[in-house]
Amino acid sequence: MTPQMTITEKILASHAGQDSVSPGDLIEVNVDLALANDITAPLAIGVVKELGANRVFDPEKIALVADHFVPNKDIESARQAKTMKEFARGYNIKHYFESGESGIEHVILPEKGLVLPGDLVIGADSHTCTYGALGAFSAGVGSTDLGIIMVTGRIWLKVPATIKLVYEGHLRPWVEGKDLILFTLGRLGTAGAVYKALEFSGELIKRLSMDQRFTMANMAVECGAKNGIFEPDDITHAYLEHLTDRKGSFYYSDKGAVYDQVVNINVNEIEPQVAIPHSPDNVRPISEVDPVRLDQVFIGSCTNGRSEDLRVAAGILKGRSVARDTRLIVIPGSPLIYKQAIREGVLEILLDAGAVIGPPTCGPCLGGHMGVLAEGEKGLSTSNRNFRGRMGHPKSEVYLASPAIAAASAVLGRIGAPEEL
Amino acid sequence: MEFKGRVWKFGDHVDTDLIIPAKFLNVSDNSVLASNCFADLRPDFVKNVQRGDIIVAGSNFGCGSSREHAPLAIKGAGISVIIARSFSRIFYRNAINIGLPILESEEAVAGLSEGTVLFVDLVSGKIKDLGSSEIFFSKPIPDFMIKIIQAGGLVDYIKNHGLLNPA
User: Do B13 and A191 touch (CB under 8 A)?
Assistant: First the structure.
């Protein structure tokens, strides 16, 4: 009898050249796409040079994206970006992206059709797990692993056991993918899935848009997971249709696949969720969160900087104004999303409301630039981490929520829900 | 491989933003990273850490961002080994890859306090409190990881032995 496998196990087996794999197996796999950014690439490039490699395994299977500190925030970060560019040109890296071609790595790579279902993607960035939304296996690593992949095209991995998350029911108004993943994080905890795969499934998931799936897969790492994955379906197919000629491989979990745990989540009672400082698993329903006064609201990042997110925010901000003592910073995740927001009138609505619009960058999410918090300031962000000092001064505070809660809170000048407007 | 040093004790979920805040990630130089290690969490760390000192921490050490700058900063500051109840997945790989020894031991973390002087034998996983003479054990590290650490990291391992095959 053929062994029964999960989607994660099937993708890993196919890239290891094996008929099957089981959790705990150490395997060596071929990488379809290796990714690094302006922070992690310089160290990885050092590894390539130290190994004496004068070429990479495949110049078409490496993506280098300038996104974290761009447009370069200071001389040092400019030097790092320059190191990456010189390497990209010198080694003929096809998918090198900067300025007008670039954007947040995990937003632009799917948009450019560089990740397909069934692919195995390894990136020197923890949020590489985002591509699981497309039915790909993707996981974050550090720069040494990435540097060695750039030379060899291969990496050893331990096959993770899978936690199956089954979402059933109907979403209440203003509840989005972000709320579902925050709720899930609250249940599992930040170490709840260390070394494991998360498989998002259930009737509700089949109705969820790609943008919301990206948001959920993106935060799998916040539970400690190696990867988060969705079985591809018609929605995935429709998303990919005009992006690329490559077909991809659609894998599905077998009926008899073995799971480490199955967690059933009925979404009928789930309210919009907020993660309280200083951990993303410190999650409460909005009705139980204090109406904390906010100095800054940020809508953007690889978690929530996509078109649907900006549309939700604009829907709430239309005809309204951002509170007087609150800054609203909106950053579209890519030039494509930026253009779409212009075409749809989304940016005009946001500007009229008093938002400042930034160029595509990771910037404020990691306290880099374009929205850093001062001592004692409180911010609400649609990004993925609210660790102590994450967005600025160690004595600042960050709350995490959806674009809907962020937009409503910007108008209220404090944490609140759209119903209060 | 044997180490002796004083304990710096940390709690659970020490994330890589706390180990090296992103404001210091505009450089890749190890000594600069080291001089900002734990800058916000424990400003006294860099001033008082001595070569060979040992970090003892709780669960999920190194969670969050994949930045390899975090174990590089810790190693550069002079820390010889980290003992924790558990590590985040990416930090674990990164630490081994750069040749920073790490051990998982529930009992050692529960039994050790700040400032204690320890003796650690990496290969056997034996941890001895030199004050009380109490002995703790950690989970054994797979053989191929010991070899990487002994080589000084994965890059040096590959330079000496060729590509790695753990399976």
Answer: yes
